[in-house]
Amino acid sequence: IAATQPRTDWHLKENAREHHTSKFSSGELIVRRGQAFTITFNGTERPEQNLIFIAETGPKPSKGTKTLATFDISSTVSKEGWSAVLQSSSSSSVSISISSPHNAVIGRYRLSVQSGSSSPQSLGTFVLLFNPWSSGDDVFLPNNAECEEYVLEDFGIIFAGNKNHISSFGWNFGQFQEDILNICLSIMDRSLYYRQDPVTDVSHRHDPRYLGRVLSAMVNANDDQGVVLGNWSGKYEGGKNPTSWTGSGEILQSWKKSGFRPVKYGQCWVFAAVLTTVLRCLGIPTRTITNFSSAHDADGNLRVDEFYDADGNHLERGADSVWNFHVWNESWFTRHDLGPSYSGWQVLDATPQEESGGIYQCGPASRHAIKEGEVELDYDGPFVFAEVNADCMYWNYDSATGKKTLIFSKSTEIGASISTKAVGRDSRVDVTRDYKYEEGSAKEREIFKKARKKLGLEDKFDPTAPKQEEVELKPDISGKFKVAGSLEVGKDLNLLLVLENLQSDAKTVNVNMTAWSTLYTRRRINQIWKDSISVTLAPKEEKQFPIKIKYPEYQQQLTTDKTIQVTALCHVEDGIPVLVKRNITLDNPDIAIQVLGEAKVNKEVVVEVAFTNPIKEELKDCVLQVEGSDLLQGVLELRIPPLKASEKSSTKLKLIPSEAGPKHLLVNFFCDKFADIKTFKTVNVIN
Predict the structure, then answer these.
(1) Which residue range forms the structural domain that includes residue 519?
(2) Which CATH number covers residue 571?
(3) Which of 20, 138, 207, 268 is catalytic?
(4) Is 19 a catalytic residue?
(5) If DSSP codes are grouped into helix, strand and coil, which group holds residue 443?
(6) Predicted model pTM
(7) Annotated binding site for Ca(2+)
(8) Which family is annotated (predicted)?
(9) Could you give phi then psi for residue 329, rounded to 5 degrees?
(10) Nearest residue to 605 (alpha-carbon basis) of 497, 686, 670, 506
(11) Mean pLDDT of the chain
(12) pLDDT tens string 103-135
């Protein structure tokens, strides 16, 4: 037994700077694979003679599973395995540069040293991560600004709303907050894959494709007691409303603190944001993607069927649905299994929608494969392809007879304005063209048919080639809803129903109209309004019918998603019915943030948050929630006194920034009449 335990100097500052890990708040060495790091230790006699190093990870380290490496001092860095190069030595200490291979298993390693025939002595532990800055790594991203954004940036912008009206909100990914890296390592060790076979699971952790899939399963609570429990009911008792979160840190910390019990509640952007945090933390370049008019094709026929009754009510029939928006992830890595053209951005989706391989996980699906209709390639191609490409079929359903009549089909409805945050800026970038060819083009239809053929669907009913009896049924009229005035919670909703007679003879039309409050998934929650009118349209005539839904009519019924679906089913005498529909997302009133004075590192700065009650009623149960990496610890929650009609509230907060640079302060205000009014402010902190 050795007389003295070696003392290790991990050169934390220098190594972290070299390895782009300075932002982690940890006393442990955190480095990236395929790159050298330096350590100094003492306590070994005649240090430079026959020292052997042992690096091991996982429960049963072995050379066969690449979870155990033994290596001695050599003069050059090994191309294949681990290596140690002597930097300097004295009678009492030795400095060594240690390099790991580009494809090393990531995770926490135990490092020990053995001198001659004595027992190995522990030098301590370090954490090894993916290395997007290194050209040999599967996650190598050649553009440095993209590495900064997709690995090191802890603030994000997530796009929401609907395709006619895109909105956005800030998110604090917080991947460098205290303990988050440990929690991410725990997530891997709690997966079903690890529980079934820990040795094999750990040996696969060199592969971003494998880890992306495992983590897409672990971020949702289904199957494995993962991080976040989904809830799309509109009722969120016993947990937090999904729209109220402003960052991942609080969610991941809660999961750990509760003894790894799922955190209540999440919806798609929460799953995507938490997965972004975990993957960025581990060093895999990752971003959130929002797809507008996103299809959930439950039966795998690349078609979404929607059913309406004679009154125009959208019926909950069949498992297919179209969401106003859906948020998933893209991660950047090589696909050795598919070939070079399929490398690059890969789709991962942690929202539990459909099972894949028996559990709720989705991806990675190569974005290039989706664009080219190569839906048979791993993983989950048909589901992702349908999210951006499915065709829509709208049916009139008679519950008394069970008869369904096709009203119309549309191939250009799904997958609009696919969006992500710009690199280094707070603006939106449209990536729709990276997912599909131009909507309505011959190439886009060709790819759609190719995908159907690969799935063995080419002989079944193809919505792009309707049956004979459907071809002749041309609608006699067309219709649309136009917005007249502002779309804001607290104000009346003014719309115009515009109907046009396409024929050269007069038409009588009976119109049944309804408005329902919905979730962002378009699930109906409460009926707000209904009306019916009978109109006669002269040949080729266009008429407008104003619709007003007053704030008191919708106030009690509105969900926290602030979405309303308006439909008009127009029954034309001796013609086919025409469906007119519009999904409306209302905006919240504004909230203002002002930084009073200069923000300096370790100096107090005052921030003022102001909100004016825009409605004629008192606001009660007002709460202000504030968070921001490097500006304050955790999430600050302040109760605010009730606000009378038109009254302005002003709240002052003190922040002590801990680091220089552009930092983001996220604010969320909610009360009994308004849910989650969010904004963010960039605070430029100077030294």
Answers:
(1) 474-585
(2) 2.60.40.10
(3) 268
(4) no
(5) helix
(6) 0.95
(7) 389, 391, 439, 444
(8) Belongs to the transglutaminase superfamily. Transglutaminase family.
(9) -120, 155
(10) 686
(11) 93
(12) 999 999 999 999 877 889 999 999 999 999 999
